[in-house]
Amino acid sequence: MKVTVENKKGLNKDLKIFIDKETMNSYMDEKYEEIKGSVNLKGFRPGKVPKEILKRQFGKAVFGEVLDKVLKETSTKALEEKKIKPAGQPKLDLKTYGEDKDLEYVLSVTELPKVEIKSLENIKFDEYTVKIDESEADKRIKEIAKNQPNFKEVSPDTKAKKGDLVSLDYKATVDGKDFKGSEGKNTQLTLGKDLFLKGFDEQLIGVKKDDEKILEAILPENFPEKELVNKKAKFNCKILSVKQPEEVKIDDEFAKNLGAKDLKDLKTLISKQINDEYKNSLDQLSRNQILKEIEKINLDEVPENLVEEEVKILSQGMQEEEAKKNKKNLEEKAKTRIKTGLILNEFGEKNQIKVTEQEVQAEVQKQLRMMPGQEKMVMDFYQKNPSALASLRGTVYEEKILNLIKEKGKPNKKEILKDQAEKILKDAHNIEHDNKEKKETQKKSSKTSAKEKKPVVKKAKSKPVAKKTKKVSKK
Question: pLDDT value at position 357?
Answer without folding.
Answer: 93
